[in-house]
Amino acid sequence: MGRQGNSGTNGSRPKGSGSGQPARGPARRPVRKPVSPVFRRRRLVVGAALLVVIVVVVGGFIAVASIINGGGGSAQDPAATHAEGQTPGPNQSAAPSDASSATPSASTSEGSGCQQNLIAVSASTDKPSYGAGEKPLLTLKVTNNNKVPCEVNIGTSQMEFLITSGSDRIFSSQDCQADNTDLMKTIAPGKSETANFPWQRNRTVQGCDSVEAKPGAGGAYYVFTARLANKTSPKAVFQLK
């Protein structure tokens, strides 16, 4: 009998891939190493520090913007008002002048160049002498000799019309004054405000007690002095016939 070949044995041997390399299975994904607790804490610390930096930068920007915009609001200048036509005192009438009556503001304060020593007060009468029964008209005048507007209180709380004869105190508008108020006025440079008082040729005393005696006439001379706050006018002399 002939020799049986070993083809059966060779037939059961798996075939190669043709490259001489054994066949590989499916590729495996790389396994991540677990993050250590130390590294995780470091990452949290770095993130927190970065957040703080961002907050500081944003806060600084907001603060700068607030300063540039004036703090987010504008202060309103607080403005004072005055009553038009207010009478300076009992039986007094306020005589309008060409002085400015603008609302007082910070620009009219002494800090803006208004010097109070350049505010002048003067006294005058409408006539140098008066016959029997004639009533003198007393005038207080306040003038702003500054080069800037000045705010002046010309209310009855500040005014006094005083008449004397030698050492005899004849009359004061404050003795029987019922209204005692403030009146703020802004007086333009070189302009004036005036207040008139018709004197009834009567005597007064402090406390407004009744006085029977009358000022003498027959050619007697009297002195009128006007006062506004702590400023006193020069004397104005007139005669009662």
Please give a structural write-up.
With 241 residues, the chain is α+β, with helices and mostly antiparallel strands. The longest helix is centred in the N-terminal third of the chain and has 32 residues. It has two helices and twelve strands, in the order ααββββββββββββ. Strand 10 and strand 11 form a beta hairpin. The N terminus is likely disordered. The chain has a domain of 144 residues: Immunoglobulin-like.
Short description:
By secondary structure, the chain is of the alpha+beta class.
What are the salient characteristics of this protein?
alpha+beta; 2 helices; 26% strand; Immunoglobulin-like; 15% helix; 241 residues; disordered N terminus
Count of DSSP strands? 12
Structural class: alpha+beta
Return the CATH class of the domain at 93-236: Mainly Beta
Helix content: 10-25%
Write down the secondary-structure element order. HHEEEEEEEEEEEE
By CATH's scheme, which homologous superfamily of the domain at 93-236 applies?
Intracellular proteinase inhibitor BsuPI
N/C terminus separation: 188 Å
CATH-defined fold name of the domain at 93-236? Immunoglobulin-like
Write the layout of secondary structure elements.
Layout: H1 7-11, H2 37-68, E1 93-95, E2 119-125, E3 129-130, E4 137-144, E5 150-153, E6 159-165, E7 168-172, E8 184-187, E9 192-198, E10 220-228, E11 231-232, E12 236-240
Parallel strand pairs: 3-12
Antiparallel strand pairs: 1-9, 2-4, 4-9, 5-8, 6-7, 6-10, 10-11, 10-12
